[in-house]
Amino acid sequence: MAAPAEPGHSPGFKKPPALLRLKRKRPGRRSDPAVPAEAAAAPAPRGSAAARRRNPFSSLDNAPRRAAAAPQPPAAAPAGGDPSTAPFWQFLEPACEEKPLGREEPAESSDILSLSQDLHSPLAVPKAPSSPRQEFPADWSIKTRVLFMSSQPFTWAEHLKGQEEAQGITQHCRAAETTLPRSVQEPRLCTELRCAFQQSLLYWLHPSLPWLPLFPRLGADRSMAGKACPWAQDEALQQVLMSDWSVSFTSLYQLLRARLCPYFYVCAAQFSVLFRAAGLAGSAEPTAAIAPTTRGLRQAMRTEGIEFSLPLLEESRARKQKNSEESLETETAEGLGGSSSVEHSGEPAPSDDDDDGNFSWLEEMGVQGKVKKPDTISIQLRKEKHEVQVDHRPESLVLVRGSNTFRLLNFLISCRSLVAVAGPQAGLPPTLLSPVAFRGGTLQTLKARTVSGRARVQGGFEDVYSLEVLGPVLPHALHALTLVLGPAQRGSFRALLSPHEPSAAFNTRPAPPQEDVQQDLPACGLHPKTLDQLSQCPTLGKSSLRLLEMKDYTYTWKA
């Protein structure tokens, strides 16, 4: 029971029961009509920090939404007022944009925004776009995901009939060429288009283990962890798998030499190898590219008598030497350089005084027995420090030409480092990827799905459709898909490409430009236009395509 106010006590004093009742009413103070008046009469606190104090225990998920926050204005169009010149992925919005915030439901149409953001991470910002061309350059890197986007729907790529799927497989196995018109008015009713799409999604793989992700293999220990690997502790089973793999590997190489297979990949746990037939990539002889490599692997190849080159490293050295010579000529012309500048220009050459282990200067100082001499291995590593520094980097790309590719075949079959001895990939042979059939190969299909979304443009939104292709997208598959999408999407689409970064070094030029390079690959199983593209000399260097756009049947790209 409440006692009357006593003299000497504050009239605002409340007893414990009244205080508890006051705490219960605090969540509903906004409904109390007296509160606004008290709040208006109360003086404003000093400083902005007192006005807005952040709760240290709040997070992005439980932070209260500000009802009075102004909506964000749409992305401004570039100078000139044409929104089509701005990057396409900046305008992407989920299809449920106009729904209230209180009812956020996951929808398939919102995946296009997350997919485009994943493909264009800050680590892979493309360079300036190229000028429009009738054909885009060959990209020898393997794509893990490709996202095609267009204002025309991709419904023609959904729910292929059994007959269309069978026809596509037959065309792939028989290397049948499909000729499509420049523009298809009704893509969903065009059987030839749907069969050609199925044909472009096929590739060959060895070994075939459906429960294991066999690509990529480099850095894939986390994705393979916890998977069933019965061969990990069974040496007999490992020998059987390796023997079967050797037969498939040899079969692919024989097809390559006979020019019946244009190229194939060997994806191991530590490195990848790209074998190309004569006539591809501007080379008149077979080539094999290995990336990334280490000093130990290169030394083992030298021991086996395999001749190779390091084109990226040699190019870098030649560029530095040229720059050094140019700077030296400039200094000499200006009269600033003398004999001392000539002797000390450029990088100092590594000293070879200690190659024979001569440490006579220690005897002259009288400390020969007190100082520990470096061993031979340390001396060798010091001499080769410039070569060791490129290990596991794109500059460590090794290029093998001609008959040395056969020595490389035998070396890889007997190479111990080709198969991991520990970890989730222990005892598992490398993955073989090929565009044509070979002994022991398994026919696989790339995963494709369609996604719808909305794009923000001036004056509102417009529907945007996308087609996502997952899996090891080989160079011929990327070009075959563009040949299908051009007529189906009326010559207008964009493609966001996510390459397997270690394979980007395969875009290095394997040989100097040659005029008379005979292709002579009519029966290699590729479309003639695809074969013409892959026969061109690579121009991307150690980079790869990130964005490919077709507009009015002409290509622009960013790398």
UniProtKB/TrEMBL annotation:
Query: What is the top-level taxon of the source organism?
Result: Eukaryota
Q: What is its main location?
A: nucleus
InterPro entries xref list: Donson
Q: Describe the family membership recorded for this protein in Swiss-Prot or TrEMBL.
A: Belongs to the DONSON family.
Q: Give one GO biological process term.
A: nuclear DNA replication
> Upper taxonomic classification of the species?
Eukaryota, Metazoa, Chordata, Craniata, Vertebrata
Span list, region Disordered: 1-88, 317-360, 503-522
Compartment(s): Nucleus
- Record keywords: Developmental protein, Nucleus
Q: Does the keyword Nucleus apply?
A: yes
**Any one cellular-component term (Gene Ontology):** nucleus
User: Any idea what this protein is called?
Assistant: DONS protein
User: Could you tell me the gene encoding this protein?
Assistant: Donson
Low complexity: compositionally biased ranges: 33-50
